[in-house]
Specification:
The protein is α/β, with parallel strands linked by helices and 452 residues long. The chain is built from 17 helices and 17 strands. It has a seven-stranded mixed sheet with strand order 1-2-3-15-8-9-13, with helices on both faces. Helix 4 (83-101) crosses helix 9 (208-225) and helix 12 crosses helix 13 (338-348). The longest helix has 21 residues, at 178-198.
């Protein structure tokens, strides 16, 4: 099943979700700018702008009696992650505001990389479609230095004018999540001076509801095109940092008509994380606590040089380093979404599992072959992989089956992202704007303002 333009297919449902999620907040004085909840009319230009929102569903080879399928959400070649969906909706709201008011909008967002890539692509698509011009809309992103290898070149970088208007700031400090506090400090402390200097509206987009509205397409497409069998629970597997995508799926399902919901069992959710940021799994099994003291103790095996544990099957049996960062995309600690996700899993079913690089590598050939059956290419050399989301999800799912942690016969893996070094043109730290404080970021934003 291939759906070429999911956002257009479910445009009215997304519009209604935005109004329900954000309508009350928009009517209140929140102390910060938002462009409103309305989307532009579906003109041919808007349809072209949204055309990167394709998704696909395909059955993978079965495994140990489980029926496996992939929900491919990373079909936009300019991003190769599911962040395309929310980013297009965010930029569409900015477009509608600009068209209605003639005022400028400057989007500001922190990111571990993929959100930044997708928002930059969505802004570029809006410019190419002629929905707005470069003086009316721009985006400023701040990412951790460890994520620079994920950043990709585009016209926002190769065109000198667009490059000046849409800078990428890089934070080189020891805690990647500091990019969030830098961006928040920027809008809290310098909003007035920046908005006045640039005659623009500063929009900080890192709000759960901005993402839930786009991710409802997962549940809507599932219900319409590949529903679970009646009376049989489907396990949804997702590599997560904050689980926005699964929360969007759950919210989308809650918006289905009651008679449609009643045809299938409520979904079960399996969270997959890595040892560098296992907080959602920790929270799920430790009464909301993310204290790493609950992690199993690892012992060094001198013969192999590997660290091993056998006390808890929900954590890696072996790892090169108990403190490793498998992929810098997953950098969020203590996500505020954990309580919601914990409640969904406790009431509906599912669980969580943590994987290691060693486990991903040990299954890499198997996963590459399985994904190849449904048209998803992994590089032959795993060292070329730059986005591990899908490989993590597949590893977690297979480990969970092998260890008897899941009982569901129907398993859907959400393919939220996968790309390798050869899939895009790269940026380097030298190409970007180093920042260490909110004041530094302020200067980056000021320099991006139009000259008149």
């Amino acid at each position: 099943m291939l759906l070429d333009n999911a956002l257009v297919q479910y445009y009215e449902e997304i519009r209604a979700a935005l109004r329900d999620l954000l309508g009350d907040q928009e009517r209140q004085d929140t102390g910060g700018f938002t462009p409103g909840v309305e989307l532009p009319d579906l003109t041919p230009a808007v349809r072209a702008f949204l055309s990167a929102s394709g998704l696909a569903h395909a059955e993978m080879p079965s495994y140990r009696g489980r029926r496996l399928a992939l929900l491919d959400l990373a079909r936009n070649p300019a991003t190769m992650t599911t962040k395309t969906f929310a980013s297009l909706v965010i930029v569409a709201r900015a477009v509608r505001f600009i068209q209605d008011t003639g005022q400028r909008v400057t989007i500001v967002t922190p990111s571990s990389a993929n959100k930044a890539i997708a928002l930059r692509d969505a802004v570029l698509r809006a410019l190419r479609a002629g929905l707005v011009d470069a003086d009316q809309l721009n985006v400023v992103v701040v990412v951790p230095e460890g994520s620079v290898a994920k950043l990709r070149t585009s016209e926002l970088f190769t065109d000198p004018g667009l490059r000046a208007r849409n800078p990428v700031a890089v934070y080189g400090g020891p805690v990647p999540g500091t990019v969030k506090s830098l961006a928040l400090q920027l809008v809290d402390q310098f909003r007035d001076v920046l908005e006045k200097a640039g005659e623009t509206n500063l929009w900080y987009t890192l709000q759960l509801e901005n993402y839930l509205a786009a991710d409802v397409v997962r549940a809507l497409a599932e219900a319409e095109r590949f529903p679970a069998a009646p009376g049989e629970a489907r396990l949804h597997v997702h590599a997560v940092s904050s689980a926005y995508g699964l929360l969007g799926h759950a919210y989308g399902r809650s918006r289905l008509p009651a008679d449609v919901r009643s045809r299938t069992t409520p979904p079960h959710y399996l969270l997959v994380q890595h040892l560098g940021a296992p907080d959602m799994v920790l929270s799920l099994y430790n009464d909301g606590s993310t204290d790493t003291a609950a992690l199993p103790a690892y012992d060094l095996d001198p013969a192999s040089g590997m660290f091993r544990q056998e006390s808890d099957p929900r954590y890696p049996a072996q790892t090169f380093d108990p403190r490793e960062t498998l992929d810098p995309t997953f950098y969020t600690r203590n996500p505020p979404t954990s309580p919601r996700m914990n409640e969904l899993i406790r009431t509906q079913g599912g669980g969580g599992i943590v994987v290691s690089l060693a486990e991903c590598l040990s299954r890499y050939g198997q996963i590459r072959a399985m994904l190849g059956e449904v048209g998803v290419r992994l590089p032959a050399n795993p060292t070329e992989l730059r986005e591990w989301s899908l490989t993590m999800a597949m590893t977690g799912m297979l480990n969970a089956v092998d260890r008897g942690l899941v009982s569901e016969p129907d398993i859907l893996v959400h393919g939220s992202g996968s790309y390798s070094a050869s899939d895009y043109g790269h940026l380097t730290v030298r190409d970007l704007h180093p920042v260490t404080t909110a004041e530094d970021l302020q200067h980056v934003v000021l320099d991006a303002m139009p000259s008149s």
